[in-house]
Predict the structure.
Amino acid sequence: MNRKQGIYEKYIKRILDIVCSLLAILSFSWLYLLVSILVKIKLGSPVLFKQPRPGMIEPSTGKEKIFNMYKFRTMTEQKDEEGNLLPDERRLTKFGSWLRATSLDELPETFNILKGDMSVVGPRPQLVRDMVFMTEEQRMRHTVKPGLSGLAQVNGRNAIGWEEKLKWDLRYIENISFLRDLKIILMTVLKAFIKREGITEENMATAEDFGDYLLRSHCVSKEVYDEKQELAKRIIEGWNGKI
């Protein structure tokens, strides 16, 4: 999955990511602390939620680099009598919903950007169990680092369907430039923080998994669905970067 990179993407984008993430962390350190305290009071420990996500494809392996993406917790750890976590909608509190609506839960991702696993702008990092259902063309979105925001986020976010979301991601990698990234950042501030558009799907606490959508739409069989889910588990279990 090779893709030609321009001068901006190859040399300048990473520098801007470092500068922007450092400025955000230093300027809003008080906000990080405040949200951390609120999460601790409202939801308890741990304050941070981490989850393996597929990142940029590594040239040496031809496979996506798996990394831990960090967010502030928005759900409780409530379990049923058998020890299984309750459905998302039962664990998502009003405070958690507020964190998501304001996008404050995503503040810790600036550390992912500083570390180099993510960029300020790029396709949003989906779940590993979403990645395994993507076609080779759709996985071209992973030829660039995942971003805090991207074209799909400013054109509907979780309010649009999976096909449209992935099309926007592929459209982004066709033309990566400073002016385009700047426009996406400005649109993100307007839509996510001011208008609060498309935070979650209608009648759902969290966005529907890609595999669940394909199964519900009869695009894949239950047998293929189960095989892909098992593959996702094996990828995570075989991942050694548990940090």
Observations:
- The first helix runs from residue 7 to 27.
- Residues 215 and 221 are 6 Å apart (CA to CA).
